[in-house]
Design brief:
Elements: E1 3-7, H1 8-15, H2 19-25, E2 31-36, E3 40-45, H3 55-65, E4 77-86, E5 96-103, H4 109-125, E6 133-139, E7 147-152, E8 157-158, E9 167-168, H5 169-175, H6 177-182, E10 192-196, E11 202-205, E12 209-210, E13 223-229, H7 233-247, E14 251-258, E15 264-267, E16 273-278, H8 279-286, H9 292-301, E17 305-308, E18 313-318, H10 328-339, H11 359-373, E19 377-378, E20 384-385, H12 387-392, E21 403-404, E22 415-416, H13 421-430, E23 438-448, E24 451-461, H14 467-480, E25 486-489, E26 495-505, E27 508-516, H15 518-523, E28 530-536
Parallel strand pairs: 4-7, 4-14, 19-23
Antiparallel strand pairs: 1-3, 2-3, 5-13, 5-14, 6-13, 7-10, 8-9, 10-11, 11-12, 14-15, 16-18, 17-18, 20-22, 21-22, 23-24, 24-28, 25-26, 26-27, 27-28
Helix pairs in contact: 1-3, 3-7, 4-7, 8-10, 9-10
């Protein structure tokens, strides 16, 4: 889950109350306080609330939740007469585009950092690490509309951010840090996405890097924002960004997008989606009786527009920046948050049973106690993954024991994992902003040939990670469980040859341990040595 750093001064100014009151109440909207610093607070938010990935979004939500300002925030959009045209080549590469202009923003160092952090958090939360959504934020002063979004030849040159000399698109993918990290998103294309102004100056090479020409600094007041991608989340991401900038006093202006077939679209669209909920629905989930006026009041507290239609129904307008509202159940969850889960009356079930811990749960608890005692932190990743992460990134051959997802909604979730280590390397990749060493473990299920298997896996990343370290951990864990084991050389390509062994119990292979192969480390975007092990606890 994303951890957002919020500057106290910004937070107090935008919320309209003191930091102690905010710190006391913010966990109630679905957040965990990670740490309190002298000038800022780090808060972990659920991935389903990307509108809270910035100090502006948190302040907007807290003003309502603390009854400082309830009801919807109304965002006006003016016409800008700015247009951007797509060429036919882009249709097969990265065809979804949304744009906006925001004028009159007064930036400080903290507000620029907040905007950049929001951008990167949305890349992860909505964009699946830029695959589905990537965002470009540009200083408007040095560029001239109308703009063009084209499929460009790899030989086109511009000066990318963090560099001082021009590079062509092919070189950026091979030599720029952002290029090497995200080059896989453009694999197989002979042309690359590029956004140009009327003078053919490069604004952005999505989803890789912006140009130095449009870099935002404290003197920037007017912004051009482009969001490109593969799905409708592009429009939601734009709404979140422009709402955050408008909360800082920016004035939103629309952009006309012209498609190759002659059609056009105006973005952003901040019109709310309308829903109706009944008191019966609310009671069935929350378990309490409410009047329609009470429900409307709770929803206004959560920044909806809401008014009673009659005694049994409420008409609702969902804020345009809320990406998580898919069903009335999601709206009712917000009612429960407003009420306060601690204020919902507990009711004993109508039947009573006598139970005891399952032997599997007792085993898992025992393993957790051992691993925590060895200095490892537990993680619980999703069991769904992809062939690329599970096999290609691990340098392992594709196998037939996989359980595929019949109708995957994302290329990132096409199968159920058969091992745990790939998930842990993904987690390490997402947490490179934290200090080292990082040591994590999971005791969880893998699905092999449609059968559930209980596995234990652990990884450690830091500059001095080596085989001896992970061997000591396996020794300690097996000794605590009173299980004798032996080892033999392994052929697992995910590990370095000569620094990998199979784990044997009663001459049966139950796992593997060793130093992770450098290519695997690079495949996951990591920059430090990693060691790990995985054991099948069912064997």
């Amino acid at each position: 889950m994303p951890i957002i750093t919020l500057d106290y001064e910004d937070l107090e100014k935008l919320t309209g109350t003191d930091r102690d009151s905010i710190i006391d109440r913010v966990p109630m909207i679905g957040a965990d306080i990670e740490r309190l610093e002298e000038k800022s607070i780090d808060i972990e938010f659920f991935p389903d609330r990307p509108d809270l990935y910035s100090v502006e979004g948190v302040s907007r939500a807290m003003r309502g939740f603390m009854d400082i300002e309830t009801g919807p925030v109304i965002y006006d959009i003016n016409d800008s007469d700015v247009e951007i045209s797509l060429d036919e080549d882009i249709n097969n590469i990265r065809p979804v585009l949304a744009c906006a202009i925001v004028r009159g923003v007064k930036f400080t160092e903290s507000s620029i950092k907040s905007l950049m952090d929001l951008q990167e958090s949305l890349h992860w939360g909505l964009g699946r690490d830029r695959k589905k959504v990537s965002i470009g934020v540009h200083d408007l002063s040095g560029i001239k509309p109308p703009f063009k979004y084209i499929g460009a030849d790899p030989s086109v040159e511009f000066v990318p951010l963090d560099f001082t000399e021009p590079m062509n698109l092919a070189d950026i993918l091979e030599k720029h840090p952002k290029g090497t990290r995200f080059a896989h998103l453009l694999d197989g294309y002979s042309k690359y996405p590029l956004i140009l102004d009327a003078k053919d100056q490069v604004l952005s090479f999505p989803p890789i890097i912006n140009g130095t020409l449009t870099m935002v600094d404290k003197n920037t007041t007017d912004l051009f924002i482009d969001v490109t991608g593969l799905s409708a989340e592009v429009y939601t991401a734009l709404n979140i960004v422009v709402a955050a900038l408008a909360d800082r006093g920016g004035r939103i202006e629309s952009v006309k997008i012209n498609y190759p077939d002659g059609e056009s679209k105006i973005t952003p669209d901040l019109s709310p989606e309308k829903h109706i909920i009944s008191m019966d629905e609310v009671k069935s989930l929350v378990g309490m009786d409410f009047t329609s006026e009470e429900v409307a009041g709770h929803l206004r507290k959560m920044r909806y527009a809401a008014s009673p239609a009659d005694t049994n129904t409420v008409e609702i307008e969902i804020p345009p920046y809320r990406a998580d509202i898919l069903h009335n159940y999601d709206i009712i969850e917000d009612i429960a948050i407003s009420v306060g889960f601690d204020n919902i009356e507990a009711i004993f079930p109508s039947t009573s049973t006598t139970g005891e811990a399952h032997p599997l749960s007792l085993l898992q608890d025992s393993i957790r106690e051992i691993m925590v005692g060895l200095g490892y932190s537990e993680v619980m990743p999703f069991t769904l993954t992809s062939e690329k992460v599970h096999f290609d990134n691990m340098r392992r051959a594709h196998t037939e024991d996989v359980t595929p997802v019949m109708h995957p909604i994302s290329e990132d979730q096409t199968m159920i994992r058969t091992t745990l280590l790939p998930n842990q390397l993904e987690i390490l990749s997402l947490n490179q902003h934290h200090e080292l060493p990082q040591r994590i473990f999971e005791v969880g299920e893998a699905i092999v040939n449609c059968a559930n298997k209980l596995h234990l896996a652990a990884t450690s990343i830091h500059a001095l990670a080596n085989f001896e370290e992970i061997r000591e951990i396996v020794d300690s864990m097996m000794m605590e469980r009173n299980i004798p084991y032996s080892v033999k050389p392994s052929e697992d390509p995910a590990f370095i040859e000569g620094r990998r062994v199979d784990i044997l119990v009663n001459d049966t292979k139950v796992g593997v341990m060793g130093e992770i192969h450098p290519q695997v480390i690079l495949n996951f975007g990591l920059g430090q040595p990693v060691v790990g092990f995985e054991i099948n606890l069912d064997e």
